[in-house]
Specification:
single chain, UDP-N-acetylmuramoyl-L-alanine:D-glutamate ligase, nine-stranded mixed β-sheet, four-stranded mixed β-sheet, about 35% helix, binds adenosine monophosphate
């Protein structure tokens, strides 16, 4: 089922205690669409790059069947650049540099062929632009998922609140959830977020997994206990890609299927962190994905 993805497209420089990657492809839209491409088609990407964005990475996205009609390439412009350094505790990172470049004036324009998309992921961008994307659609989608971050919660709160009224699922991390509704308890925070519009809330807790809240259930999925983690960049976006990918593939929004989608999100996130940048999302097989999904079942199984 058709999936529209809008978000940042970046050249990232990443330092972790285990290595470094310079000017590698990243950004929320890239991680989300690469992860979702293992589940559903067509995926329609909206984003902006400069002429410095490597042709090989565009070819990679095309090779995953991702529709790039909505990709704006600004001749002579420079791609959005983010640079970060992770602590020994990989849940903590410092942003060393952010250069908006062509992203500063990004206006997400949907090609006509995108306007009937049934599933939508609004990656972490200005909430005004996120809302513009929803309003450019010809028909109400089955599901709109929104990600955001501290920066927008603090600086564009009112715009974000307007966008949330049009969103079905909010995916945020624990600190963002607490900040958004000024509530330290995550269960209460999720309930308060539901009062803002989203009927489904997912709170990511880094290496401690993710919580799913609907009006009927609370579900907790662990993060997969991996022996080697090289780079957590994009894990949250890979999670969103696996989550929406499974829902778009199955066209089933029941609580039970939302639980499975959270596990598929966790599966894609677990692969993502195993290599730097998007490398680990380049060559996954259905067997690997299903195998890790079954490992998740085993990980949390217990007898009554
Ligand atoms: P995550 O690790 O899930 O937070 O996602 C990391 C990705 O977010 C990186 O590839 C960055 O290029 C991108 N990113 C970092 N800062 C921003 C920002 N202010 N707006 C949009 N994307 C960003």
């Amino acid at each position: 089922m058709s999936l529209l993805v809008v978000g940042s497209i970046a050249l990232d420089t990443i330092e972790t205690p285990f290595g470094r990657a310079d000017q590698v492809a990243g950004g929320s839209a890239v991680y989300i669409s690469a992860a979702a491409s293992y589940f559903t088609a067509p995926i329609r990407l909206v984003g902006v790059v400069g002429s410095d964005f490597p042709k090989s990475e565009i070819e990679f996205l095309e090779s995953r069947g991702i529709d790039l009609d909505g990709l704006q390439v600004i001749e002579g412009g420079k791609t959005f650049h983010w640079s970060g350094r992770y602590h020994y505790d990989l849940n903590k990172r410092d942003t060393l540099d952010t250069q908006l470049n062509v992203f500063e004036t990004f206006n997400p324009v949907l090609p006509d062929s995108y306007r009937k998309s049934r599933y939508v992921v609004l990656g972490n961008i200005d909430p005004v632009l996120q809302r513009r994307v929803i309003e450019s659609l010809d028909q109400k989608p089955e599901l709109v998922i929104c990600d955001t971050m501290n920066f927008w919660i603090e600086r564009k709160r009112n715009e974000l609140l307007k966008t949330l009224k049009k969103v079905d699922v909010l995916i945020v991390n624990d600190s963002e959830a607490r900040l958004l509704v000024s509530e330290p308890n995550l269960v209460k925070a999720a309930k308060k977020i539901m009062g803002l519009g989203p009927r489904i809330v997912i709170i990511k807790k880094g290496e401690h997994g993710a919580l799913l809240f609907t009006t009927n259930i609370v579900f907790s999925a662990p993060a997969f206990p991996l022996e080697f983690i090289y780079d957590p960049t994009g894990a949250g976006d890979a999670f969103a890609g696996g989550f929406i990918g499974h829902l778009a593939r199955t066209e089933n929004l029941s609580d039970d299927n939302l639980r499975r989608a959270v596990v598929y999100g966790s599966v894609l996130a677990s692969f993502c962190v195993g290599k730097f940048g998007i490398e680990a999302l380049k060559n996954l097989s259905d067997i690997e994905i299903l195998g890790r999904y079954r490992d998740f079942i085993e990980l949390s199984k217990f007898e009554d």
